[in-house]
Specification:
The protein has a single domain (about 30-200), classed as Rossmann fold (3-Layer(aba) Sandwich), CATH 3.40.50. Helix content is about 25%, strand content about 30%. The chain contains six helices and eleven strands. The protein has helices at about 35-40, 60-70, 80-95, 130-135, 150-155, 160-175, and strands spanning about 1-5, 5-10, 20, 25, 50-55, 75-80, 95-100, 115-120, 140-150, 180-185, 190-200. The strands form two sheets. The chain has a seven-stranded mixed β-sheet with strand order 7-6-5-8-9-11-10, sandwiched between helices. The structure holds S-adenosylmethionine. The site of S-adenosylmethionine (SAM) has 18 residues, from helix 2 and strand 6.
Length: about 200
Amino acid sequence: MIWIGDVLVSQGEGAVYRERMLDGARVWDPYRSKLSALYYLGKGIELTPAMRVLYLGAANGTTVSHVADYVEVVYAVEFAPRPMQDLLEVCRRRRNIIPIMADAARPEQYAPLVESVDLLYQDVAQPDQAAIVLRNSVFLKPGGIIILMLKTRSVDVRKEPNEVFSDTLDLLTSAGLVMKESEWLAPFHADHAAIICIKPEA
Ligand code: SAM
């Protein structure tokens, strides 16, 4: 990842969401992006130029745009029309983002459009976040990485965040994924945890 001093940046055309520029690079704000927060907390995986990424919950493309600055291609899935309009504007200026308007819970809808990927990133803030990630893991290469941004309050507001977190881990590991690391995203994002898993080689 590219740091200028202690500031995380990505190299690409700016003015996507009024982000600051620093020495010609785009400042990647940890308060606006959970993935940036994860890097600030010392975790996360290195994004590299040959990587293909399937990104679920693209919203208006804030984090997608930074990821696209680092990797070969991002398949960006979003189901809400309003953020999709903004995302299309981001895609107009970045040729390596493929926008897909679809429900991430129904990957069969976009299966013909997506190649196998190295990284599956999910930030959909839904009650069935673990199930959605598992359904989409068919697109992940063996040895590929999953980053799940778990919003515990969207899964079950009556349960303690820690309980939701461990239930989610159980679901992922009992489906055969291997836990790599995890991190709570405070102070940047309250009650959110990043879970990083690996799809084992066959
Ligand atoms: N990842 C974005 C970023 O960092 O810039 C923020 C994502 S926002 C927390 C969650 C997004 O997921 C919303 O835009 C919402 O419309 C989308 N979403 C929720 N459920 C979805 C689903 N089942 N399929 C596709 N998109 C979904």
